[in-house]
C-alpha cells in the first residue's frame, strides 16, 4: 500500500478536522494552530463517535459526545471516559498536497 492524496493543504483550516476514508479506514485529518498536519483514527474508542466532528485544541482532538480528548501525536486519550488510544498515521506533504497511507500506523 502507498500513501494516498487526501486533499490540498490549503483546504485544511487551522484548528479544524476533516474526516476521510481510505481503503475502509476512517481517519481524522487535523491541522493544528501551528500549521502541523496530523492523522488519527476517526472513531472515538469510548463511544464509536466520529472524532472529526469534535473540537481541536492545542495537541488534542476532543470527542463532541462525551468529552474524551485524544493526543494528535500519540493517539492516547488525555482524559476519561476513553482509556484506549486511537491509531496514528504518517502524514506527508508533497507539492502542497496532503498524503496518508492508511496501512502504516505509527508506533508512538
Automatic annotation (TrEMBL):
It comes from the Bacteria. Keywords: 2Fe-2S, Iron, Iron-sulfur, Metal-binding. InterPro entries: Rieske_2Fe-2S, Rieske_2Fe-2S_sf. The keyword Iron-sulfur applies. The keyword Iron-sulfur applies. SUPFAM superfamilies: ISP domain. Residues 4-100 form the Rieske domain. This is Non-heme iron oxygenase ferredoxin subunit. It comes from Protaetiibacter mangrovi. The lineage of its organism: Bacteria, Bacillati, Actinomycetota, Actinomycetes, Micrococcales.
Amino acid at each position: 500500500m502507498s500513501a494516498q492524496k487526501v486533499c490540498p493543504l490549503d483546504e485544511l483550516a487551522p484548528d479544524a478536522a476533516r474526516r476521510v476514508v481510505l481503503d475502509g479506514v476512517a481517519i481524522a485529518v487535523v491541522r493544528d494552530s501551528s500549521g502541523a498536519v496530523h492523522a488519527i483514527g476517526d472513531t472515538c474508542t469510548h463511544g464509536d463517535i466520529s472524532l472529526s466532528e469534535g473540537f481541536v485544541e492545542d495537541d488534542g482532538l476532543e470527542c463532541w459526545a462525551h468529552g474524551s480528548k485524544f493526543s494528535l501525536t500519540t493517539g492516547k486519550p488525555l482524559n476519561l471516559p476513553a482509556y484506549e488510544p486511537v491509531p496514528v498515521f504518517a502524514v506527508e506533504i508533497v507539492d502542497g498536497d496532503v498524503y496518508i497511507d492508511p496501512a502504516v500506523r505509527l508506533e508512538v
